[in-house]
Amino acid sequence: PFDEQAKELVKTIQSLGKFKQLMEEMIKVYKQQDIDQLHDMTTNEDSGVSNHTDILLYKRNHNWVKQFPVIATAHPTLFAVGAAHLGGEEGVINLLKKQGYTVRALHNK
């Protein structure tokens, strides 16, 4: 809801130092490719979206994964999603595994 988005924005501005530190930690975890920790960080209460993870992450993940086979069979496809969508029980990676796909990481060097 817009009123909650506005409150979270004000909260972020008022706590800029705290959120800067949190963002630096998230970038570090992202570079380490630790999707489980990144998922935990993006869904905890400090993230400001914990009350809406179902709408912002999980419902979207389920909708996307349903569409992947249809799109991918039409032509070769690269799917790119935000890192927060990858981890967790209802993350894209786990949902694809449940459908029988083999998922493997591409590691950065």
Quick overview:
With 109 residues, this protein is mainly alpha-helical. The chain contains 5 helices and no strands. The longest helix has 22 residues, at 53-74.
Uncertain residue segments: none
SSE order:
HHHHH
Strand runs, count = 0
If helices are DSSP runs of H or I spanning 4 or more residues, what is the number of helices? 5
What is the SS-derived class? mainly alpha
Largest sheet: none
Per the principal axes of the C-alpha atoms, what is the gross shape?
Answer: globular
Mean pLDDT: 85
Would you spell out the secondary-structure blueprint of this structure?
Layout: H1 2-14, H2 16-31, H3 35-43, H4 53-74, H5 92-98
Give an overview of the whole structure.
This protein is an all-alpha fold and 109 residues long. The chain is 61% helix and 0% strand. The longest helix has 22 residues, at 53-74. The model has no long low-confidence stretch (mean pLDDT 85).
Spell out the key features of this protein.
mainly alpha, 5 helices
